[in-house]
Structure formats: C-alpha cells, structure tokens
Amino acid sequence: MKLIVDSGSTKSSWGLLEGLEHKATVQTAGLNPYFHTSGSIDSILNAELIPFVITDHIREIHFYGAGCSTEKNDQLIRDSLGRYFHKAVIFVYHDILGAARALFKKEKGISCILGTGCNCCYYDGSEIYSKVDSLGYLFGDEGAGSYLGKNLIRHYLKKSLPADLRLEFERHYKLNLEDILNALYNLPYPNRFLASFSEFLAPRQKHPFVHSMVKESFSSFFEAQVRHYEKYRELPVSFTGSIAYHYREILTETAAGEGIRIGTIIKAPLEGLLKFHAG
C-alpha cells in the first residue's frame, strides 16, 4: 500500500492507495518544516494520523510538502515518518512538483499554488524548473492567503477600510492591536493567522474594495512569479490551492487582463496525485 501526501502550511491530506483503488483519506495539520521541529511533527502524527493507519501495511510514502525545498527540510520529514513507517520507502518532494503532476500529469504547462502561501514553476511533463523563490509570508507569497490577510489587517489598522467593512470586521473578530501583534510576533504559525482572514474576505469578494484588493494581489502574483517564464502567454497556466479555487472568478478576470490563459483550477492536488501514482 502507498500513502500519497499533499502537505501545505495549514493542512495535510494523506491518501491511502492500494493498487488502483483509493481506500481512505486522513486530514492532519500541515507539516511545513520551516515551522515545525521533530517534536511538533511527532505530536501531530501521533494524535492525527497514526491512530487511523496500519503503519506496517505501508510500503511507499510519497510526501509532497510546502517547505520541502532543502535537503535539511526533506530529511526532517523523512526521519519523522521513518520513526513510524518502518517498512516504507519514503520519498519527499517539493509541493510545487505535486501541483504540477496533479494539474498536468505528463503535459507541459506553468503550475501555480495559491493557498496559505504561493509558488510557481514551469513543468515540461516530467521535471519542474523554477526561476523565482516564493520567499514566504514576510517577503513574498503574493496572491496567497497570508498576503490577502496581511493587506486586510494593514488596511484595518491604518483605518483605510471602508466603514461598512470595518464594522463587519470588528463584529466578526473583536481583535485589538495587541491581539494582532501578539499573534504575529509571539504565537506559532503567523502565516496561518494571516491566511485565516480569507474566511472574512471570500464571502465579500463582490464588495468593490475587496474585489479590487484581491485583484491587485493576483496581479502582484503574476508579476512576481508567472511573468518570469518566457512562454507564459502561450502555455496554459493552471492553479491549485484554496485561494485560487475560492477566488477563481477574480483570478480568471485578472489573468485575462494580463493576456494569460488559465488552464485548470482545482482546490487541492491530492486527487490528481492519487491518479498519477496509481498509473
């Protein structure tokens, strides 16, 4: 049996594959190695995964993860999984390869992730080629949930939100400046905290201010990431991730204005990855 894993910064989806058959899916917290230690990964695995999987039945694990971009980070994931899955061969890949395989299978295209964070690459049907690092929520993640949340919070704190949105925000969250700064500088997972505000924005994306803010963030994503690839106007540009999926109308509108052809937009890559590894 195989475990196929799509792990973002917020959540991980573990698909159990037996031959061609998808047997079950288990959801856990995300395991981005930039935000976790060996101990915190063990805590998540023990509480959220191991009770639902017969570990000795697993012979292969294909783990596609946000933050799995260095050998050190990859080894942290391999070592953590290896403590539980003693009979499995463990493969760790960058999540952008997982997105590319799920979106394009063996076709060419530009693969993009817009979830809590963002990423982008050219995929030739086999290998990925990246020209720009994502840089995370502090210096990058244009268009992603953390970026949208950061913009919303900035407008709120600088009192530049329209009055109706400000009132709704205060009713919904009841946050003061101290709460926000504490979450950003003292509590774990500030990127998740920022991205959580997408839950406020998504139902209000028809509001002119929200629509404009989201559209500008997607324009920033295209400028920071997609435009670096020479054939970005010729190849299909496809997306996976909750932000791409829930804001797909604005994303498609923004892409059209940039002369970019959207291929596919899916919420999560696991289904495509299960098909890829069942083949």
Structural class: alpha/beta
Give the CA-CA distance, first to last residue. Answer: 14 Å
Strand proportion: 15-25%
Strand order of the largest sheet: 3-2-1-4-5
Biggest sheet descriptor: 5 strands, mixed
Overall geometric form = globular
Instruction: Bin the helical content.
Output: 40-55%
Order of helices and strands: EEEHEHEHEEEHHHHHHHEHHEH
Radius of gyration: 19 Å
Report mean pLDDT, rounded to a whole number. 91
Helical element count? 13
> Would you report the number of β strands?
10
- Are there runs of 5+ residues with pLDDT below 50, and where? none
Give me a quick take on this structure.
The chain is of the alpha/beta class. It has helices spanning 38-49, 71-82, 95-104, 136-139, 145-157, 163-173, 177-185, 190-195, 198-201, 208-224, 242-246, 248-257, 270-278, and strands at 2-7, 11-18, 21-29, 60-65, 89-94, 109-114, 118-123, 128-129, 237-240, 262-266. β6 and β7 (118-123) form a beta hairpin.
Which terms would index this structure?
single chain, 279 residues, 10 strands, 44% helix, globular
How would you describe this structure to a colleague?
- There is one protein chain.
- This protein is an alpha/beta fold.
- 44% of the residues lie in helices and 21% in strands.
- The chain has helices at residues 38-49, 71-82, 95-104, 136-139, 145-157, 163-173, 177-185, 190-195, 198-201, 208-224, 242-246, 248-257, 270-278, and strands spanning 2-7, 11-18, 21-29, 60-65, 89-94, 109-114, 118-123, 128-129, 237-240, 262-266.
- The mean pLDDT is 91.
